[in-house]
């Protein structure tokens, strides 16, 4: 079992200066937490300056978005090849990209492939909507989004990606999924990856939970078997709350390591 992976998705919040200040404060609050990999997904404007800053602070960076072609006449876009070396991760298929910006499976699998091609680990976000949930279609939604997102990469590449299970109805709403349901969804994700890409891919792929995670509920998710970390939106904008969650993840990692020894 690897380190817990905790990703802050700041969305369209924080200026470059505020993001930089956040990094200083976070470093003061968490110091070196060896059991946790901390990843910050800032506004695209802050990627370059934070890249220089985080090298001293043991944090990694994620792009919130990028275009799937490497270069060309695509006004306003930033490619994975331009982000190469600046970020370690790239969010793909986030529900806001799917539902606000109309990204389809075709775009999402091209982005996953572009990230892999450029040495960036894709974080494929999947999850059912409220109506899919009400209609008992959670398993189908997960299945379709996995196939739709991963169709262009190999089983070996799937081993190295991250899947974030984020029920759409839980994102930014304050409604969070019951740990029992998250556990069921995460098992389903690994089962479906096993069927599609084999046992090794299912074993090694990292699976995160995201959706209204806060200081009070984080530990419950982090302790679910098969959950490798968290993708956090709103709460990650509060440096103290985010640091608290990192400390909890570190404690859980140490407890697991002690049990395994
Ligand atoms: C997210 O943006 O991926 C997310 C999970 O947001 P929130 O934590 O605010 O629900």
Describe the structure.
- This protein is an alpha/beta fold and 261 residues long.
- The longest helix is centred in the last third of the chain and has 22 residues, at 239-260.
- The radius of gyration is 17 Å and the shape is globular.
- 47% of the residues lie in helices and 15% in strands.
- It has an 8-stranded parallel β-barrel with strand order 1-2-3-4-5-6-7-8, surrounded by 5 helices.
- β3, α3 and β4 form a beta-alpha-beta unit.
- α5 (105-117) crosses α7 (138-150).
- It has 12 helices and 8 strands.
- The protein has helices at 16-30, 44-54, 80-83, 95-99, 105-117, 130-134, 138-150, 155-159, 179-197, 199-204, 218-222, 239-260, and strands at residues 4-9, 36-41, 60-63, 89-92, 121-126, 162-165, 206-210, 229-232.
- The protein has a single domain, classed as TIM Barrel (Alpha-Beta Barrel).
- The structure holds phosphoenolpyruvate (PEP).
At a glance:
Pathway: Carbohydrate degradation; glycolysis; D-glyceraldehyde 3-phosphate from glycerone phosphate: step 1/1; Carbohydrate biosynthesis; gluconeogenesis. This protein is α/β, with parallel strands linked by helices and 261 residues long. It has one domain: Alpha-Beta Barrel (TIM Barrel), CATH 3.20.20.
Helicity, in percent? 40-55%
How many domains make up the coordinates?
Answer: 1
The strand count comes to 8
Q: The CATH topology, please?
A: TIM Barrel
Shape by Cα distribution:
globular
The CATH H-level superfamily is Aldolase class I
Integer-rounded radius of gyration: 17 Å
Key structural traits:
EC 5.3.1.1, TIM Barrel, alpha/beta, 15% strand, isomerase, glycolysis, Triosephosphate_isomerase_AS, TIM_sf, 261 residues, binds phosphoenolpyruvate, 8-stranded parallel barrel, 12 helices
């Amino acid at each position: 079992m690897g380190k817990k992976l905790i990703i802050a998705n700041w969305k369209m919040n924080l200026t470059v200066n505020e993001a930089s200040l956040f990094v200083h404060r976070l470093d003061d609050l968490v110091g070196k937490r060896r059991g946790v990999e901390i990843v910050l997904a800032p506004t695209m404007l802050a990627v370059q300056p934070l890249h220089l800053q985080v090298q001293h602070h043991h944090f990694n960076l994620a792009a919130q978005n990028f275009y799937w072609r490497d270069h060309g006449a695509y006004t306003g876009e930033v490619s994975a090849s331009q982000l190469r070396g600046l970020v370690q991760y790239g969010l793909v298929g986030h529900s806001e990209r799917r539902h606000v910006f109309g990204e389809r499976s075709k775009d999402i699998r091209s982005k996953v492939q572009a990230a892999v091609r450029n040495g960036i680990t894709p974080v494929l976000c999947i999850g059912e909507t409220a109506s899919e949930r009400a209609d008992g279609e959670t398993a189908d939604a997960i299945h379709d989004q996995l196939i739709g997102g991963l169709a262009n990469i190999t089983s070996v590449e799937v081993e190295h990606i991250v899947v974030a299970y984020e029920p759409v109805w839980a994102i930014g709403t304050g409604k969070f999924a019951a740990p029992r349901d998250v556990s069921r969804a995460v098992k389903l994700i690994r089962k479906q990856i096993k069927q599609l890409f084999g046992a090794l891919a299912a074993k090694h792929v990292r699976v995160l939970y995201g959706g209204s995670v806060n200081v009070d509920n984080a530990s419950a998710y982090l302790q679910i078997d098969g959950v490798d970390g968290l993708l956090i939106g709103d709460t990650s904008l509060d440096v103290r709350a985010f640091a608290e969650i990192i400390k909890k993840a570190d404690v859980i990692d140490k407890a697991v390591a002690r049990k395994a020894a």
